[in-house]
Amino acid sequence: MVMPELRHWRAARPHLVRIANAVRPRLAGFAATARPRLARLVRTVEPRLARLVRTVKPQLARIPGPRTARTWQCTAGAATAGLALAAGVVTAAGPWDATGQRTAERDRAAALGRAGGRDHGADSGTVAQPRPAPSAAPVLTGLGGTARAADAARGGKSLADVLGPLLDVPALGDAHAAVVVDVASGAHLYGTAGDKPLTPASTTKIATAVAALSALGPDHRLTTRTALEPGTDRLVLVGGGDPTLTARTETGGWASLRTLATDTAKALRARGVHKVTLSYDSTLYAGSDLHPIGVNDNLARVDALMTDEGRTDGSTSGPAPRVPDPAAAAARTFAGLLADAGVRTTAPAPAKAAGRAATLASVSSPPLSDLVERMLTNSDNDLGEALARQTAVATGVRADFAGGGRAIAGQLTKLGLPTAGAVFHDGSGLNRADRLTADLLTALLAKAASPARPDLRPVLTGLPVAGFSGTLSDRYKNAAAGLVRAKTGTLTGVNALAGTVVDRDGRLLAFAFLASNTTNPTEAQTALDTTATALTN
To answer: Is 414 among the residues known to form the active site?
Structure first.
C-alpha cells in the first residue's frame, strides 16, 4: 500500500532541505570537536564498566532464566550510551573552564562595555583586547565580615603590611593619603593622612553627584522650553541648564532640540504665527561662564543654554574643541530648525523671558540619576559644572562658580559627612584650588551605599568599571578587571582614585587614594591601580 504524500509535508520539504543543508556543516564541525572528548571519556569509563561487570556477572548468573546475560549486557550498554549522551550535551554547552564557568560567557563579558571616555585627555593609545572576566571567589562571606578574620585567613598579614609598601613609591610624591573602609560595618580598615586636604582632581565629581542627588532627587529633569510673549511675535528659547541637549538626528535618548523646534512650530501655526522675533534666555546661571582654567578643550563655557556640550567635532565625551558662545550657537541652530519647520525668524539675540510669557513647548533631559552616571563614567566636566550650579539653584544660592561650591559643601554638611578641610571652587575638579580628604571621599561612597539612601545609589552605579568602561576602560589589565569600580582624577602633578571593590571575602570596601606632587603620571597611576588591585586579594 502506498501512502500519498501529505500536502503540508510537500510544502515544508524545501524549507527542511535548506535547514538541513545549513546545519550540516555545523554538525560536522561539532562532531570533529566533540570526537576527541568523547574518546577520552569512553577510555576513562570503559575500565570502570568492565570492573562493574566482573562484580555483578557472578551474582546475575545465579538468577534463573535465559535472559540474565542479556539483562546485564543491556544495562552496561545503556550505561555507556547514557554517558556518551551526557558527554555530548556537556560538549554542546561548553567549552568549560576549570572553575565550571563557560569560557564563551567569560569572553563575551570581557568584550562588553568598551565604549568610554578619558580622564582629561589621558589616553594610552592602545586598544585593549577582550579577555576573560574574573570569577568571584568560590564562597563569599557576609558583608559584615571582620578585618581580623580576613587577615587571619591570609596568615595574619595585615592590610597595612600589604598597602604600605605599594603606596611608598617615589612616583606618588611627597603628599599622599589613603583610606579603606568596610562599607557594611563602617570600620576603618586602613588609613594614612586620611584627614589631610589634598587636590582631588576629578574625584570631586563624587561630591558633586552626592550633593546634586540629595538636593534635587534622582528623578529631577532639566527642561529647555520656548515661550511666547503675549500679544507679540517675540519667541524666547529658554535654557534650563541641560548640557546634554542635542541637535543631532540620533539623540541617544537625550533631550532633542529638533523635537523642541517641531513642537514649537506646530504651536505657532495653531496660533496663526508664521514669523517670530527670536530671543534666547540663558540667565538661569549667574557670574562668569569661563572656568578659571580659561579656554580649554576639557570644558565648554558654563552656560544654561547649549547643545551637545558646545562640541564642534561630533564627539560625545573627552576633550574636544568648543564653540566660543554656546548659547548663541544653540539659538542659531534652533532658528534653522524652525525655518525647516515653516517658521521664519529674525537673527536671535539674548533677552530674558518675561514672567507672563506662555510656554509653547518643552523637552526634558533624562532623570538626574542618568546624568550623574554619565558624569562619573566619562568624567564629564560640563555635567560636573552644570550639576554644581543646579544644586545652587535648588538651594537658593547664587548659581556661579563660588555659589556652586558653597551649595555642594552645604549639602554634604547636612548629610553629616566629614567636610572639615574640604574646599569646593567648582563641580568638576578642574580647579587646582579644590581640596578634599580621603576620609570625606570614603564617607561619600559609604553614604551612597547605605540602604537608607537609595536616592544616592547612582553615585556607585556610575563609577567606571576597571577594564570595561569610561575612564578605566584601558586600565587594569589584570585580575582586578571588573572587580574595581572607581572615579579617576588626573591633573599635572596630581593622581587620585576613589571607589569600591569587593574583596576575596565578599566585603564591599570603599577606598580613596590621593597623591599630590606626583613625579611621573604613568608610574603614579600604576601605583594606585596596583594598590586597588591588592584590595581584591
So the answer is: no
